[in-house]
Each structure stands twice: as structure tokens, then as C-alpha cells.
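User: Structure please.
Assistant: Input sequence and predicted structure:
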Amino acid sequence: MTSSAALERGLDAFAEQRWTDAVDALTEADARDGLDADDLERLATAMLLIGRETGLDTATRAHEAFLEAGDEAGAARAAVWIGMYLMQMGELARSAGWLARAERVVRSNSGAESAGGLLLVPQALTALYCGDAPSAFRAFEQALTIGERFHDRDTIALARLGIGELKIRLGEVDAGFALFDEVMVAVTAGELSPVPSGIAYCSVIGVCQLAYDFSRAREWTVALDHWCSDRPDMVMFSGECQMRRAELYRLHGAWPDAVAAARAGLVRARRGDRIAIHGAWYEQGEVRRLRGETDAAEESYHRAAETGIAPEPGLALLRLAQGKAKLAQSLVRDAAAEADPATRRRMLPALIEIELAMRDVAAARRAVDELTAMTPIAWMPMLQAVTDGCEGAVLLEEGDARSALVRLRSSWTLWQELEAPYEAARCRVLVARACLALGDEDSAAMELDAARAVFADLGAAPDLARLDTIARSATNAAFGPLTAREVEVVRLVAAGMTNRAIARELYLSEKTVAHHLSNVFGKLGLASRAAATAYAYEHALV
């Protein structure tokens, strides 16, 4: 095959986003006669997209070829992309060097002015991550102005993404999402280059989840999944796609799938999509914490922290589960104090839970009032579910069980509609506590049984243990160690009913009835239904 034929094949593959084919053909053309600067840049992009870090060397060659051809704008753009890639890889010194080179080219050549907008993007991101929102906002605004002047769609999109994220982090949620939606129109219309497109998908999903906009997050996660699936050889962004899928699986109660997706994300991360490392480890830590796998959760959070990003609030909640409530309080308070408004809002539910565990109801009240005040005008069911649940939990500790019940039932309804079984079950436990405080033991028993079935299906061992504690506290002393529901089951066993008949009588599943009987046998040291029947008569339960 001639060099021109290989080049044509490579350019066709690049246009069709068949990255491996593009790399193979363009590499062949380069080996035969060499590539010009634009085609070297295409080759470098395709190489990096499929996880070949040698693409960085090719990008360097592209930068030098642009300079040699007198295309200072192209040289500056290549230097900026190299700097941004190295920034993502955590190689900050090399990144700073390349960005400084890009700045020198832009300043010394009027023809490179068009690259000045793109150059401002990493500067704005650095300010954003350092907590300097005003400087970040100014830099993004300047980048947008330059991008619009030179009709640079990639720069325009990245600048709008940055401004949108800043607005959302600072509480201007509606304005921020309007900018995000505008960017995503450009992405889905195919107006952007592949790398800015991937950045847009991942940025929008991340901020949607930060802002509790579950509907948008799910919609764009599905879109990102399809985008990655249509490019099966692409490594860059694919790890983050798996990490986002893990978050959704966890929320929907598909915990094994969440772990599998997180592990797949790590595989992709090791092949080049390093930005997914923190999220993939953190998601595994979350599932393991919820299952009561303390050592494994500890390891996962530790690995997440190695990326330089604190694994909060997950680690604080793990410390709470380990009985280290004071340490948990310190961790979550410090993390929330250092966070921007949007990240702080994301941490407030854990802060409230830990403050209540520490019996600092006043601090929990301040936090829930702050959470309520931060709720945007736009209707977001997930955020409302969180807010109602937190408000109900605090009202319950304040002694207003009746008001708590209203908020908790509202929260439960929303979690059910969102198909979030674990959160809904936790809400039912709080509803049961409110019912007990109001003297409604039958309703409390029903709520606890419903929650128990969900926790058992999920494998949420710590929640099952806490539920048993709550159930025991509601037990009449005459029943000994048994809960009120367990006494009902024993009575029906003594009446000669099968598990299926008992399930129909109490409106429970057979699995739940079997679980209750297992608890009864364990608590009383019994081994058969006949022994349970004898116990019922001996202790006047029938």
C-alpha cells in the first residue's frame, strides 16, 4: 500500500472515530513518508484515546511540526492539549512546562492569538481546584470571549462547561444547567472534537450528581455509555463511564453490578483513563461499607485517597460504623468546612447523620436548615428526598414525631419513585421509629419488616443489625428477647401454620417469615417448630 493510500485510510478511520484503525494506518503513512503537523496531531489524539501514552511523543512532534511550518496557533494549541493531558495524569511539573511554552508562543506571535482562549481553560481549572472561584470565573469568561471571536467551538464548549460548573458550585443551579444543556447540544450534534466531547460528557455527569440532579445524571450517563460503546477501542473516558455506571447501580440496589462496573473502570484506568481511579475505588468502598465488609472498605477508601482526593463522606461513615463516632464527626466537619457550596451540600446528609449519632441535635438542626436553604427553585426529586429525610430525622430527635412522620413518608415515596431501595428502606426504619414514638407498634412492626426484607436482599448487614436493635427496644418485657413481630410468628407457629400461611396472614414474604423464625431459634436456643410451640405455651404467648 502506498503512503497516500495509507494516509487516506487513516483519515477516513479518524473521521469515523475508528481509533485503532486510524492509528495503524496513520502510523504506516508516517513510517513511509512522514506526516504533516495536522495529521501528526490526529495520530497523537487517536493514540491517546486508545490508551497509548506514546501518543504524547507524537503530540510533541506535532507541536514541533507546527512551529516549523510557521503555524504558531497550531503549535500553541498542541502545547495546551499536552499540558492538559499531563495535568489529568497528575504530572503537574511537566504540565506547567508545556502550558508555559504555549503561553510564550501566544504572547510572542500575534497569529497565535486564537489559541489564547484554549490556554485560559487549564489556568481557570487550576484556580477552580485551588478554591479561587473569582479567578476561575474571570479566566473562563475570557476564554469564552476569545473562543467566540475566533469561532473555536472546542474552546467555547470548555469555557461554558467551566462557567456552568462554577455557577452550580456557587448555588446558581438553574443558570449552570442551562449552560450545560447548551454544551451538550453541541456534543450530540457532533460539533466538537472527540476529546472535548468526552470531557463534556464526564464533566456534566459529575456535576449533575454533585447537585443531586439524578434525572440529568442518569440521562447523560446512558448517553456516555452509548458514546463509549460506539467506540469500543477507546480507553480515554471509558473508565469514567464505568465509574458513573457504578454510581447508578449502587443507587438502584444492584450492588454486585456496581462493584463489577467499578472494577471494569479500574481496568480501563490502568490502560490509560487514570481520572477514573478515585471514583472506581470510592464506589467499591461504598458498597463494601454498606455490606459491612469493613476491612475491604478501608482498603478501597485508602486506595481512593492515594489519588489526592479525600474519600469523604464515605470514610467518615465507615468510622461511624466502626464505633468511632468522634473521629467520624471530625472528618466530616473538616471536609464540609473546606468544600465549595455544591460539594458541601453533598456532604451535609452524612454530617447530619453523624451529628445525630453524637447526640448533637443542635448541630444537626443547623445543618438541615442549611441544606433546606440551598435547595434550588427547580424541582429535583432526589434532592427533595434527601432534604425530607434529613429534616424528618432531626425532627424525630427533637421530639416532634408527628411532623417527622410526614417528612419521612414524603422522603420514602420519592426514593421509591427513584427506584433507590436502600435509601427507601433506611427511610422506613426512621418511619418505624416515629410510629413507635407515637405508640403505633403495629405500623412500626410493618415498616421494620419491610425494611428488613430489603436489607436482607441487598446484604446490608450493618443495617440489619441496627434494625434488630430498634426492634428489641420496642419489645414488651413479657416477650423476653423476642420482638413483637417475632412473637406474632411464634404464636402462628404454635397454631400449626406453615411459613406460607404465616406469610399470607401477616402480609410478609416467606423469606421474611423464615428469617424471623431463624432469629427466634437463635435467641431462644431452640431447634424445631415443636420447641417454639412449647415455648409459646410455657410463656403464655398463646
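Residues 441-458 form the longest helix (18 residues).
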